[in-house]
Amino acid sequence: YISTYSLFNESKSISNSCEKLFYEIKDEIVSKISKLEDGQKIQNLNFDDLKIDNLIISWEINVGNKNKCDGLTNINTSSIRLIIEYSDMDDEFLFYIESVLLHELLHIHQQYNLKINNKFRPESWSIGSIMPQLRNVIKTEYVNYILDNLYFSLSHELSAQLHQYFLYRKKDKIYARIFDIEKSLGNFYIKNNLSIPEKQEIELVKKH
Known about the structure:
The protein is of the alpha+beta class. Helices cover 54% and strands 20% of the residues. It is built from seven helices and six strands. It has helices spanning 16-34, 91-116, 123-137, 141-153, 155-170, 176-186, 196-207; strands at 8-9, 14-15, 39-47, 50-63, 68-74, 79-86. The strands form two sheets. The chain has a four-stranded mixed sheet with strand order 3-4-6-5, with helices on one face. A two-stranded antiparallel sheet has the order 1-2. α1 crosses α2. The longest helix has 26 residues, at 91-116.
Protein backbone atom coordinates (compact mmCIF):
# COMPACT_ATOMS: atom_id res chain seq x y z
CA TYR A 1 0.00 0.00 0.00
CA ILE A 2 2.80 2.43 0.79
CA SER A 3 4.14 2.34 -2.76
CA THR A 4 0.80 2.47 -4.58
CA TYR A 5 -0.86 5.55 -3.05
CA SER A 6 0.00 8.54 -5.22
CA LEU A 7 -0.27 11.04 -2.37
CA PHE A 8 1.62 8.98 0.16
CA ASN A 9 4.48 11.02 1.62
CA GLU A 10 7.27 8.44 1.56
CA SER A 11 9.77 10.76 3.22
CA LYS A 12 7.60 10.63 6.34
CA SER A 13 5.92 7.27 5.77
CA ILE A 14 2.49 8.81 6.15
CA SER A 15 -0.44 9.78 3.94
CA ASN A 16 -0.72 13.55 3.47
CA SER A 17 -4.51 13.52 3.55
CA CYS A 18 -4.58 11.38 6.70
CA GLU A 19 -2.14 13.70 8.44
CA LYS A 20 -4.14 16.82 7.52
CA LEU A 21 -7.42 15.24 8.56
CA PHE A 22 -5.93 13.99 11.81
CA TYR A 23 -4.78 17.45 12.87
CA GLU A 24 -8.15 18.94 11.90
CA ILE A 25 -10.14 16.68 14.21
CA LYS A 26 -7.96 15.18 16.92
CA ASP A 27 -8.01 18.03 19.48
CA GLU A 28 -11.82 18.12 19.70
CA ILE A 29 -12.08 14.34 19.95
CA VAL A 30 -9.30 13.85 22.49
CA SER A 31 -10.57 16.75 24.63
CA LYS A 32 -13.96 15.03 24.99
CA ILE A 33 -12.32 11.67 25.68
CA SER A 34 -10.15 13.26 28.38
CA LYS A 35 -13.39 14.37 30.07
CA LEU A 36 -14.69 10.78 29.83
CA GLU A 37 -17.46 11.80 27.43
CA ASP A 38 -18.76 9.26 24.91
CA GLY A 39 -19.61 10.82 21.60
CA GLN A 40 -19.18 11.11 17.87
CA LYS A 41 -17.94 13.57 15.27
CA ILE A 42 -19.17 13.79 11.68
CA GLN A 43 -16.63 15.09 9.17
CA ASN A 44 -16.81 15.72 5.44
CA LEU A 45 -13.62 14.74 3.61
CA ASN A 46 -12.68 16.45 0.37
CA PHE A 47 -9.07 15.51 -0.35
CA ASP A 48 -7.87 14.54 -3.81
CA ASP A 49 -7.45 10.94 -2.69
CA LEU A 50 -10.09 10.77 0.04
CA LYS A 51 -13.63 12.07 -0.55
CA ILE A 52 -16.29 10.94 1.90
CA ASP A 53 -19.51 12.69 2.90
CA ASN A 54 -20.24 12.41 6.59
CA LEU A 55 -17.47 10.21 7.95
CA ILE A 56 -18.72 9.19 11.40
CA ILE A 57 -16.07 8.92 14.11
CA SER A 58 -17.51 7.61 17.37
CA TRP A 59 -16.02 6.54 20.66
CA GLU A 60 -17.17 4.79 23.79
CA ILE A 61 -15.36 4.81 27.12
CA ASN A 62 -15.52 2.19 29.85
CA VAL A 63 -13.75 1.87 33.18
CA GLY A 64 -11.53 -1.21 33.35
CA ASN A 65 -8.43 -2.63 34.95
CA LYS A 66 -6.09 -1.58 32.14
CA ASN A 67 -5.63 1.05 29.46
CA LYS A 68 -6.73 -0.22 26.04
CA CYS A 69 -8.01 1.34 22.83
CA ASP A 70 -9.29 -0.70 19.87
CA GLY A 71 -10.41 0.75 16.58
CA LEU A 72 -12.88 -0.51 13.97
CA THR A 73 -13.32 0.92 10.47
CA ASN A 74 -16.07 0.32 7.92
CA ILE A 75 -15.87 2.03 4.54
CA ASN A 76 -19.40 0.84 3.63
CA THR A 77 -20.89 2.81 6.52
CA SER A 78 -18.16 5.50 6.39
CA SER A 79 -17.38 5.01 10.04
CA ILE A 80 -14.58 4.71 12.57
CA ARG A 81 -15.31 3.45 16.07
CA LEU A 82 -12.93 3.69 19.02
CA ILE A 83 -13.56 1.37 21.96
CA ILE A 84 -11.69 2.64 24.99
CA GLU A 85 -11.10 0.90 28.30
CA TYR A 86 -9.16 2.79 30.95
CA SER A 87 -7.84 2.48 34.46
CA ASP A 88 -5.91 5.77 34.32
CA MET A 89 -6.79 8.36 31.67
CA ASP A 90 -3.38 10.02 31.78
CA ASP A 91 -1.57 12.05 29.11
CA GLU A 92 0.38 9.07 27.83
CA PHE A 93 -2.76 7.03 27.25
CA LEU A 94 -4.49 9.99 25.57
CA PHE A 95 -1.53 10.25 23.21
CA TYR A 96 -1.84 6.55 22.43
CA ILE A 97 -5.55 7.08 21.65
CA GLU A 98 -4.50 9.83 19.22
CA SER A 99 -2.20 7.36 17.49
CA VAL A 100 -5.00 4.78 17.20
CA LEU A 101 -7.19 7.44 15.58
CA LEU A 102 -4.46 8.09 13.01
CA HIS A 103 -4.10 4.33 12.49
CA GLU A 104 -7.82 3.99 11.72
CA LEU A 105 -7.82 7.01 9.41
CA LEU A 106 -5.20 5.23 7.32
CA HIS A 107 -7.44 2.16 7.11
CA ILE A 108 -10.29 4.35 5.83
CA HIS A 109 -7.86 5.82 3.30
CA GLN A 110 -6.78 2.35 2.18
CA GLN A 111 -10.32 1.01 1.88
CA TYR A 112 -11.56 4.12 0.06
CA ASN A 113 -8.83 3.91 -2.58
CA LEU A 114 -9.54 0.25 -3.21
CA LYS A 115 -13.26 0.91 -3.55
CA ILE A 116 -13.07 4.07 -5.68
CA ASN A 117 -10.63 2.44 -8.11
CA ASN A 118 -12.73 -0.75 -8.36
CA LYS A 119 -9.83 -2.89 -7.25
CA PHE A 120 -10.21 -6.39 -5.94
CA ARG A 121 -9.77 -6.65 -2.22
CA PRO A 122 -6.14 -7.69 -1.64
CA GLU A 123 -5.38 -10.92 0.14
CA SER A 124 -4.25 -9.07 3.27
CA TRP A 125 -7.71 -7.53 3.69
CA SER A 126 -9.38 -10.90 3.13
CA ILE A 127 -7.21 -12.48 5.80
CA GLY A 128 -7.71 -9.57 8.18
CA SER A 129 -11.48 -9.71 7.80
CA ILE A 130 -11.72 -13.27 9.16
CA MET A 131 -9.43 -12.63 12.14
CA PRO A 132 -12.26 -11.65 14.54
CA GLN A 133 -14.11 -14.90 13.77
CA LEU A 134 -10.98 -16.95 14.39
CA ARG A 135 -10.22 -15.09 17.62
CA ASN A 136 -13.58 -16.20 18.97
CA VAL A 137 -12.86 -19.90 18.49
CA ILE A 138 -9.08 -20.26 18.90
CA LYS A 139 -8.22 -21.14 22.49
CA THR A 140 -4.63 -22.45 22.52
CA GLU A 141 -1.79 -20.07 23.28
CA TYR A 142 0.39 -21.19 20.37
CA VAL A 143 -2.26 -20.81 17.66
CA ASN A 144 -3.16 -17.38 19.06
CA TYR A 145 0.54 -16.57 18.77
CA ILE A 146 0.40 -17.59 15.09
CA LEU A 147 -2.65 -15.37 14.54
CA ASP A 148 -0.90 -12.42 16.18
CA ASN A 149 2.09 -12.74 13.86
CA LEU A 150 -0.10 -13.33 10.82
CA TYR A 151 -2.14 -10.22 11.55
CA PHE A 152 0.85 -7.95 12.11
CA SER A 153 2.49 -9.19 8.91
CA LEU A 154 -0.44 -7.98 6.77
CA SER A 155 0.64 -5.06 4.60
CA HIS A 156 -2.30 -2.79 5.42
CA GLU A 157 -1.76 -3.32 9.14
CA LEU A 158 1.98 -2.65 8.93
CA SER A 159 1.25 0.60 7.09
CA ALA A 160 -1.15 1.67 9.84
CA GLN A 161 1.39 0.76 12.53
CA LEU A 162 3.90 2.99 10.73
CA HIS A 163 1.44 5.86 11.02
CA GLN A 164 1.40 5.40 14.78
CA TYR A 165 5.19 5.15 14.85
CA PHE A 166 5.42 8.40 12.85
CA LEU A 167 3.29 10.25 15.39
CA TYR A 168 5.44 9.07 18.29
CA ARG A 169 8.64 9.98 16.47
CA LYS A 170 7.39 13.52 15.85
CA LYS A 171 7.07 13.97 19.61
CA ASP A 172 10.38 12.21 20.35
CA LYS A 173 8.46 9.41 22.00
CA ILE A 174 9.07 5.68 21.66
CA TYR A 175 6.36 3.55 20.06
CA ALA A 176 7.51 0.25 21.52
CA ARG A 177 4.90 -1.83 19.76
CA ILE A 178 6.51 -1.47 16.32
CA PHE A 179 9.72 -2.92 17.72
CA ASP A 180 7.82 -5.71 19.46
CA ILE A 181 6.21 -6.57 16.11
CA GLU A 182 9.58 -6.52 14.35
CA LYS A 183 11.08 -8.77 17.02
CA SER A 184 8.16 -11.20 16.98
CA LEU A 185 8.12 -11.52 13.18
CA GLY A 186 11.90 -11.83 13.03
CA ASN A 187 12.02 -14.55 15.69
CA PHE A 188 8.93 -16.51 14.76
CA TYR A 189 8.83 -19.76 16.73
CA ILE A 190 7.90 -22.96 14.90
CA LYS A 191 6.68 -25.58 17.32
CA ASN A 192 7.41 -29.12 16.20
CA ASN A 193 5.43 -31.17 18.70
CA LEU A 194 1.90 -29.87 18.57
CA SER A 195 -0.80 -30.94 20.97
CA ILE A 196 -4.01 -32.39 19.57
CA PRO A 197 -5.99 -29.16 20.23
CA GLU A 198 -3.25 -27.14 18.51
CA LYS A 199 -3.34 -29.42 15.46
CA GLN A 200 -7.11 -29.13 15.29
CA GLU A 201 -7.03 -25.35 15.52
CA ILE A 202 -4.32 -25.04 12.86
CA GLU A 203 -6.45 -27.12 10.51
CA LEU A 204 -9.38 -24.82 11.27
CA VAL A 205 -7.25 -21.76 10.43
CA LYS A 206 -6.13 -23.38 7.17
CA LYS A 207 -9.74 -23.96 6.11
CA HIS A 208 -10.47 -20.28 6.48
